[in-house]
Amino acid sequence: MLLQSPILLMRFLLATFLTWVILTTSIPQVFINYTNTQVKSNRFLSDQYPQNSIIFPKSISSITESIVYYVIGHPDDEVMFFSPTILELSKPKYNNTVKLLCFSKGDAVDPSIGPIRVKELYKSASILGINQEDVTVLSYKDGMNESWPIEDIHESLKQYINLKSKNRKVLITFDEFGVSNHPNHISLYHGANAFCKNSPKGNIKFYKLKSLGFMEKYSFTFLTNIELFVDYISKLIQRFVPVNITVSFFEPKNSSTSIKIYSDLNMLACSYAAMGYGHFSQMVWFRYGWLMFSRYLTYNHLIEVVN
Asked: Domains, the chain, ranges and CATH?
């Protein structure tokens, strides 16, 4: 009986993963192959191959033609928590420029690892499609016992984000719960919120990454499968009856300004490469469990903060 439990768990995980691959990758790619005129004719109108996106709402015009600033606390945050949105918003069809602003070198263990982790961040960013010149690393003190002053974060953001620029600007960071109540992440939310509040109205859009509860955080692709399956069924029913069916777990009270982004297999493979190859120093034994179970690698829920 004891031996059967791990086997059943592995079978469940494998079945869940294969279902996810079908829902996020196989079906959309087949749909593109049979409906996209460029792909069908092999005659392309640009130098970019048509890419599929699984996002809700279907259009995210609020984050296009923009400079998108990801404000993170440590090297590897960009992969562990934000890779679905980074990969999605970096797609050519949005015409965005994505930048990383990392507030620490991730050297809580020892200062000697700081330079290593900075180099790893550059490598990871490159895998995710971000140029090194678009990555900035600051020297805030890393640690679970460190709360960074809001005023300092505000000033740092003023220094690195040019509010006078006419380009559309979007700032994305953690929410007030910091994914796992990490004080560095929480500080970034409050500092970014203060920065956006004091910016000219309409000058910058501010999105926070919704922190997931324990069960959702480690559900990997299971909940996504249910959400996407219901969406496909809804689309099928809509061919005959004008009805819209949706299901979403742990929905916030205000969903009118939220964006949900789902990865497919290609995006997940890129995230694995960025973490496993880019941040090699961080690949301790428990990190593999995170890669196997974390929903953040395949799903991001951004909520707009309206000040």
From this structure: 59-214+253-304 (3.40.50.10320)
Tokens, residue 101: 């602003």
Give Cα separations from 214 to 82, 217, 296 (angstroms).
18, 5, 12
Give whole-number Cα distances, 72 to 16, 185, 236, in Å: 31, 7, 40
**From CA 99, how far away is CA 77, in angstroms rounded?**
14
Backbone dihedral angles phi then psi of residue 269, each to the nearest 5 degrees: -60, -40
Helix axes 150-160 and 183-197, enclosed angle (nearest 10): 60
| 174 close to 102: Cβ distance less than 8 angstroms | no
pTM of this structure: 0.92
172 forms beta bridges with 70, 207
Q: Name the 3-class secondary structure at 69.
A: strand
What are 32-77's pLDDT values in tens digits?
988 888 988 889 888 888 888 999 888 788 899 999 999 999 999 9
Q: Report the alpha-carbon distance of residue 277 to residue 283 in Å, rounded.
A: 9
> Which phi-psi region, left, alpha or beta, contains residue 124 (left: φ > 0; alpha: ψ -120 to 50)?
alpha
Radius of gyration of the chain (CA): 20
Instruction: Show the CA angle centred on residue 114, arms to residues 109 and 116, nearest 5°.
Output: 115
Characterize the bridge pairing of strands 168-174 and 97-102: unpaired
| pLDDT per position as a tens digit, 80-110 | 999 999 999 999 999 999 999 999 999 999 9
**Smallest Cα–Cα separation from 160: which of 73, 77, 69?**
69
The one-letter amino acid at 142: D
| Residue-level pLDDT at 239 | 72
